[in-house]
Amino acid sequence: MSAAAAPSGLSSFASLDPLVRPRSVAVIGASDEPARIGGRPIAYLKERGFAGPVWPVNPKRPTVQGLPAFASIAELPAAPDVAIIAVPSALAIQALDELGAKGCRAVICFTAGFAEMDEAGAAAQVRMTEVARRHGIRLLGPNCLGVFNDAIRFYGTFTASFEKGWPIPGRIGIASQSGAYGTHIFSAALDRGIGTQVCITTGNEAEVTLGDVLGWMAQAPEVDVICAYAEGIRERESFLAALDLARRNRKPIVMMKVGRSQLGGAAAQSHTASIAGDDAVTQAVLDEFGVVRARTTEEMLDIAYAATRRIYPAKNTLGVLTVSGGAGVLISDAAEAAGLPMPPMPEEAQAKLRALIPFCAPRNPVDCTAQVTNDLKLISTFVESVAVDGGYSSILSFWSQTAAGRSLGPKLHEQMRAVREAHPDRLWVMSMLAPNKVRDYEADGWLCFEDPSRAVVAIEAMGRFGAAFARAEEPRTDIPLPSVELPAMTPSEAVAKSLLAGAGIPAVPEHAAPDSEAAVAAAESIGYPVVLKILSPDIIHKSEMGGVLLDIADAGQVRQGFATLLDRARHHAPAARIEGVLVAKQIKGAVEMALGVFRDPVFGPVAMVGLGGIFIEVLKDVAFRRCPFDTAEAERMIRSLRGAPLLDGARGRPKADVAALAKALSALSAFAVAAGPRLAGVDVNPMLVLPSGQGCYAADAVIELAGGSH
């Protein structure tokens, strides 16, 4: 794990306790009408039997919903653990200030009309944040739907979701920037019988951020699994600290991060005044910490439901037992699409099963056919073989409606229960159309899905969690940073390569030549053929103006090429500063890769690797990671590319020097951090990767400085 993966911020997570586990509650703007925003929390707290005092503040009424009311915050009998602000925006900041003076240190602000509206609202939110920080208040919101924690019957929320039912017992926590969508997730879970007792919505995040909430859940005993909905990450340190803590505590996070598209990103900004950021960078950060990203609410709940079993195989394999050959094909397709391995059963085990049912297909999927319904004892034999002989970490059984039948259902359940009890360390999943049996199977430790393809997606996610948890146990690697001194102005290619070479990113042998005779001397010292390139700090994309000449074979071609490049530069970029021509060794037989760095506004320097040349723009086959990272992580990035087989000797090519490429990529990530905020970006394209053991060399490099200094 990189040195950047363990940020500070852990101590702030526990300070959210009064927001989620208060012993007393004040409601500012309390309403006597249970259906109004200022009335719902009081009604919920009363109905659910919150144990602590509830203090309504309303200067116009002596009582609110049967509780004694207080005319002002100053008249409260004590400082509440948490206060709910439900007054108009013009009064909200004053109420916050008065609560701080009273000694309240946790506030939930329902009030809207701040940064999500306009510049004036944004300025008011800044003032609100300043007030909260001056008093040491943990402020949730504004413009949030609040919190509920049914474990202590605390309902600091005005959602109407509870009209369809109260939370059921469970250990899934919901953290959401959107209040409406956070409670939508709760309602969808309730419909499926999935327990979500804790839900925290952050709204505009004037003070408490999504990262703070994730961090609180990562250490909260009420929560084993975290569902998160995010529109944009505004604050880095707490977010990264939370992901790191959740991974170390083996608490899986399944996240819906929306705003992938430009349209979606714009909607996110107007909705919660957050910055959607670069989706590819966010994805890289989630991958780094093993957060599984869900595409839909249904998928989020499928994965969270599966995670409640708390079985996370680090090396996940799927064994399938089915009574339908068609279902086996469907499951196999889904597993391949998800990247979930389905190794075949051992030959000896296959022979044993064929001896029992000659027409079965026991490879994997293991199709035992409907014949087992004639001899139900065969079921346990087949399932036991899949578990023991196959050794799969996850086992999916497809029984369709058979499990629901009055004649076969109970006997099938008995057989499956016995095998599962004998191997409790496996992830056991049932695909069946038997709503009458789901709760019984779940009580025995099974996961139940109607759709086997959805089951496969959830099973694959458990393996990703397991692999991430295993990485968290690896020793942390300190990444040594080089000494980097950036020039005052954007450097030429030659200077850029020299800077990178000093940090461990090797360049092709080359010399800068101010005139044609110097170019000839350089070419003859390097050896023909050579490459000639115009050398100018003002011409970044040389190939677009014909500024690169290949296969220069002798001194005459060097002189002619030198003149040609200067003529083209004067024609296409008459104002550019020309330092001469770069003469470089021409390397053939290499795989062209591309390395790069750019500075993300939230997560800082981010490194990239992909196929080089024009393919990076056409195919967009790239991987990203936060900087810095070690060579092992660099190699994982390289291996994740769809084009990685090109490096492993595809179509008879020699295997490329992936180790050298990983070393250069890691070195680039360290250079990016050491260079500091003046470094806007680095582009090394192509990086020529030679056969194994021969290294890799930067054939072109650009270093861009912040502000475009020239």
Automatic annotation (TrEMBL):
Entry-linked Pfam families: ATP-grasp_5, CoA_binding_2, Ligase_CoA_2, Succ_CoA_lig
UniProt-listed InterPro entries: ATP-grasp, ATP_grasp_subdomain_1, CoA-bd, Ligase_CoA_dom, NAD(P)-bd_dom_sf, Succ_CoA_lig_flav_dom, Succinyl-CoA_synth-like
Keywords: ATP-binding, Ligase, Nucleotide-binding, Tricarboxylic acid cycle
Keyword DNA repair: no
Gene3D superfamilies noted in UniProt: ATP-grasp fold, A domain, ATP-grasp fold, B domain, NAD(P)-binding Rossmann-like Domain, Succinyl-CoA synthetase domains
Gene Ontology terms, MF aspect: ligase activity
This protein's record includes keyword Glycoprotein: no
Residue stretches making up the ATP-grasp domain: 497-533
PANTHER family for the chain: BLL6376 PROTEIN, COA BINDING DOMAIN CONTAINING PROTEIN
Protein's name according to its UniProt entry: Acetate--CoA ligase family protein
Taxon lineage: Bacteria, Pseudomonadati, Pseudomonadota, Alphaproteobacteria, Acetobacterales
